[in-house]
Design a protein that fits this description.
Blueprint lengths: L13 E4 L8 E5 L10 E5 L10 E6 L4 E6 L15 E6 L12
Antiparallel strand pairs: 1-2, 3-4, 5-6
């Protein structure tokens, strides 16, 4: 039988960072939305001449830039609408593997 998992709300989700050499995460900004935090790995063909069907192994995961929406602070503003909050867009590029954690 498959393990049951509880659904989780997005409430309490923040954009955080960890400075190089630090073990502590610091909240960067409250966000309004976030992108998919991952991607499919590349497919590596490992088929041999003995195989009757193609075989594959998981390859490297390619991470694009991540764009987060937030209320406007001291950066460039995103476009706006009538009677709407002023928003901004934050785009970051990964330099390491993405780490998902739940604060305790």
């Amino acid at each position: 039988m498959a393990a049951k998992t509880a659904a989780q709300a997005t409430m309490g989700t923040y954009l955080m960072y960890k400075a190089s050499g630090s073990s502590e995460f610091t909240k960067l900004v409250d966000i309004k939305n976030f992108p998919d935090l991952g991607g499919e790995p590349e497919r590596v063909d490992v088929t041999t001449l003995s195989d009757r069907v193609r075989k594959y192994a998981m390859g490297v995961q390619d991470l694009a830039s991540f764009t987060f929406g937030a209320n406007y602070i001291a950066v460039y503003k995103a476009g706006g609408d009538v009677n709407a909050a002023q928003d901004m867009t934050i785009t970051i590029f990964p330099s390491t593997e993405f780490v998902y954690s739940v604060p305790v």
